[in-house]
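Q: Okay, next protein. This is HGxxPAAW family protein from Streptomyces albidochromogenes. I've checked the sequence twice, so it should be correct. Can you predict the 3D structure?
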Amino acid sequence: MSGMHGDHDLGHTVAGWTGTSLAVVGFTLSGVATVAGWTTGFWLGLGVTALAALVTWVLHLSGWGKPSGPRPRADQQWRTRDWAAARGHQHCVGCRAAGRGRRRPDRQVEPREQPVIETA
């Protein structure tokens, strides 16, 4: 990535672009509906905006987002999948909300005794 940002990883991902596009559509719909006095359209726009957050989260969890911090230069293309998302990112609130990320150390689980069922 060249240009005025240099070699910074700005987080251009499928999840980021999709979520941002949906949020812009939702906010635009809400704004136009507010000016037009269309209450249903206002709430529809807010629904699309909430959907944007949900879609972004699902795409991030499916590997179309990125972890916090810069990625290696080879992984900075926006269509690069993040295969580590299946395990969860260490400091990611979205991954933790999905039950991924900061995991406890593996514990030894002792097997429970199976009840003995006598057959006649």
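A: Here is a summary of the prediction. The mean pLDDT is 80. Residues 14-97 form one domain.
Q: Noted. On to the next one.
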